[in-house]
């Protein structure tokens, strides 16, 4: 009889352990552990559940921003160093605002703000140059 009670206790302890491991802990709860806002979770879904997903979302958001800024700079006729420095400032501001306001990530989790600002900068810079040149030439030849 004692053996049956001991076996029941072991089975109950094993059951509790398996139940605890089946429930997600607060450290691995996906987007909520990164502190993503509700609109960000709706827009980007499960991509914000992991560190790589946040970096992917940041990369593509930066590419879209580069297209928009490139077209605007081309339409307004910004050229040379003014256009390049303006893009650097606009791209950095957009990235930081996107991460802080929409995604709400902890910068230290990714190696600091500078690492997040560098993520995808060169591809977005080349995309910016191509879009700016296209818009600038379109305006120049239409007039």
TrEMBL record:
It is a multi-pass membrane protein. GO terms for cellular component: endoplasmic reticulum membrane; mitochondrion. Keywords: Endoplasmic reticulum, Membrane, Transmembrane, Transmembrane helix. InterPro entries: EMC6-like, RCAF1. Pfam families: EMC6 (PF07019). Residues 1-34 are annotated as: Disordered. One of its GO terms (biological process) is mitochondrial respirasome assembly. Its main location: endoplasmic reticulum. It is found in: Endoplasmic reticulum membrane. PANTHER family: GEL COMPLEX SUBUNIT OPTI (PTHR12906:SF0), PROTEIN C20ORF24 RAB5-INTERACTING PROTEIN (PTHR12906). Belongs to the EMC6 family. This is Rab5-interacting protein.
């Amino acid at each position: 009889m004692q053996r049956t009670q001991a076996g029941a206790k072991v089975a109950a302890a094993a059951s509790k352990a398996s139940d605890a491991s089946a429930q997600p802990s607060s450290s691995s709860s996906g987007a909520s552990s990164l502190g993503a806002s509700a609109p960000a979770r709706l827009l980007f879904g499960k991509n914000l559940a992991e560190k790589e997903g946040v970096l992917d979302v940041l990369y593509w958001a930066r590419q879209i921003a580069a297209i928009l800024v490139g077209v605007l700079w081309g339409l307004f006729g910004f050229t040379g160093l003014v256009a390049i420095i303006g893009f650097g400032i606009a791209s950095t501001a957009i990235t930081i605002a996107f991460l802080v306001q929409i995604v709400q990530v902890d910068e230290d989790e990714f190696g600091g703000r500078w690492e997040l600002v560098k993520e995808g900068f060169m591809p977005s810079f080349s995309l910016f140059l191509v879009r700016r040149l296209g818009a600038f030439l379109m305006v120049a030849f239409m007039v």
